[in-house]
Amino acid sequence: MAGYLQDQLWIKRVQSKYTPIQVAQYLATIGVSPPSNIRQPFDSANGSRQREMRLKMLEMVVKHHLLTFPFENTEMHYTSSHDIDIDHQALFKRFVVERKGSFCFGQNTVLLEMLRGLGYRSYAGAGRVNSNWQNPAQEYSFGPQLHMVVLVQPFEDSSETYLVDVGFGGTGLVRPIPLVSGEKSEVMGVGPTEFHRLIKEPFPHSSLGQGVWNLEVQHVSSGATRVSAKSPWKRMFAFCEQEFFYEDCVAASATVTRSHPLFTQNVLCIRSVLEDHSLDSSLYRITMHGNEVKARRNGETKILATFKTELDRVKALREIFDIHVNDACVKFVAGGLAQLK
Q1: What is d(CA 85, CA 74) in angstroms, rounded to the nearest whole number?
Q2: How, if at all, do strands 300-306 and 194-202 pair?
Q3: What is the pLDDT of residues 39-53, one digit of tens each?
């Protein structure tokens, strides 16, 4: 079912912060070859084929981005600045040149500008994470607007709109989801045990009672059907359709890097991995948190590594996540909140 912004608004085309050469370098890095006609004007005679091609291309970019660039905050802990630089050119260097990653503001800033460079009409939106999302029986507890998402209109002849998000980390989206409320928005997550959907309803405690969008996730046991499992939907974050500008992103990023406990107290890294060697296969996630690295596949978790020293941790970053942190940089985490206990 097609989804739309309020009043079926059209997103204006905006020039990318990246040059065509940089967009081509990004695509080569993630291993995606765009169709030669990706930027051609809409042709009504071949409309359905063009729409299918543009949606497929969007799906490929999102999936390959996740496979290439880990969700991580090592720049906060293994540099003297203890900051994450989200300048567009600094992000290009970190992602495309160094093959590292970032958190939501870096991840979705890069994706947004690359999609614009490919001719997709898109813009950034802001989200509020529900800190109780892993406990669906508890009351929602939404924080300030410290998450970033991307809204995209893939088709030249339509204002049909999708949400994409490569920056939530664990349990986040891995494909575009149509901007529709309810079961008609449901899409599979990393594999057959994970699903996402959108729900639009008034924000709790709102004075206006206006509807906002909510992204929810559901996990079912491996081998169980979704009907028999009766697994609860967990509300991860809420977002609205108001545009989130780069200046907003910079301010929110500074707040997260300076005061958000999840990021200031932990070295985080999450990589998406193919289940097998086929690019059409499902994914699973490998996560570094605390003193462990875990893999979660088909609803089951396996510990891959544990570490007692900071050198053990940077070794795991290199060998498991392919993030190269110099051993000498462990001095920057010493004495800080994220130091191994």
Answers
A1: 12
A2: unpaired
A3: 655 555 567 888 899
